[in-house]
Amino acid sequence: MPQLALVVLVAVAVLMLKHAVADFYLQSTYQYMNKGHYGHPGGILHSAIHVALTPLVYLVIAPASLLLVLGIAASEFVLHYHIDWLKEQLPTATGGPRGIAAFGLRSAPTSWCTA
């Protein structure tokens, strides 16, 4: 396997693990319940947790300039915040389930969300 392909594969795997940790272990009930309210500190905090973990992944897997890492992190914050907000808005507008249930999956066990 070419070196670049291996680095990309490892980066995707580690980013998926980072995302799971941020969404299921570090996301509190306060964050989960309020990320559908635009500008609410709970949603901002949730996205900030993702952003705080992302540079660690890039600096370990593929050390690059700090400016590039910060640019990726800032972009992730904006995208993650708005995607989570939108996931909460669509079910409200259509009358469907909210959060992960909108994808036909069960909600995370309450043990995954801390109070």
Secondary structure blueprint with pairings:
Blueprint lengths: L2 H23 L3 H6 L6 H21 L4 H29 L21
Helix pairs in contact: 1-3, 3-4
Task: Describe the fold and architecture.
With 115 residues, the chain is mainly α. The chain is 69% helix and 0% strand. The protein is built from 4 helices and no strands. It has helices at 3-25, 29-34, 41-61, 66-94. Helix 3 (41-61) runs antiparallel to helix 4. The termini are far apart. The model is unreliable at 109-115 (pLDDT under 50).
Rg: 16 Å
How many helical elements? Answer: 4
Largest sheet: none
Q: Percent range for helical residues?
A: 55-70%
Question: What general form does the structure show?
Answer: elongated
Provide the succession of SSEs: HHHH
Count of extended strands: 0
Structural class, by secondary structure, is: mainly alpha
Strand content: under 5%
Characteristics of this structure?
single chain, 115 residues, mainly alpha, 69% helix, elongated
Outline:
With 115 residues, the protein is mostly helical.
